Amino acid sequence: xxxxxxxxxxxxxxxxxxxxxxxxxxxxxxxxxxxxxxxxxxxxxxxxxxxxxx
Amino acid sequence: xxxxxxxxxxxxxxxxxxxxxxxxxxxxxxxxxxxxxxxxxxxxxxxxxxxxxxxxxxxxxxxxxxxxxxxxxxxxxxxxxxxxxxxxxxxxxxxxxxxxxxxxxxxxxxxxxxxxxxxxxxxxxxxxxxxxxxxxxxxxxxxxxxxxxxxxxxxxxxxxxxxxxxxxxxxxxxxxxxxxxxxxxxxxxxxxxxxxxxxxxxxxxxxxxxxxxxxxxxxxxxxxxxxxxxxxxxxxxxxxxxxxxx
Lengths: 54, 246
Description:
Chain A has 54 residues and is an all-alpha fold. Chain A contains two helices and no strands.
């Protein structure tokens, strides 16, 4: 099987890559959002703490 | 109270570092199993004699659908524990699982549509299996929206816990919908009572992808519960010390 055959998926390219692609995007986006949210919460809580301490 | 030893981790302060230590133990298997699972999905599993290459959507559709139902059950169990035993951490875990469950439900519906279009000729039909899975998505979103709408977190725990528990009735409906109603959706190829009606390589690929998604769910739930603990315990001394560290 060549690479172009692989990407063609026997004519089902749109459906197969539309499924696997969107799944990958969802899962990676969730991880990025989690990481970002965590950093943001740390930053916010630190700011509140610093205000209260000063 | 003379609590048993394992109860120690039911307190957010003890669970926070444990959750952090557990993340890599699930992240590594998640990555490894995903790589193996994808390789098997495209290069090991043979072409289907009826659906050609199109059937490979199954290797994410079925595991995502299983996870969407399984995570709902886990969320409901945590919600029940939170309601009955009143452990705060249980409600936090229920809260942490909901978004990941919603994402897998969305993936199951999306890949279902992308599989349905070439095989059935339609993206969507209002049949029992598809409709009950859509209701599952609304239940997840409902639990999350209810949480966001209630300021007091203890009250939100109770309200969300109740909704999650009532909604659990939908899970067996999804599972048995293909038996109970006439539907376009095919029946289960794998059942607990009889031998699976598919090739062994396909079955193994499904299982590997399922465990990959499961490990991924642990990673996201544990990461999310850490943030939830920080937010909800923000007035406690240990959180103030923790965020103060450089």
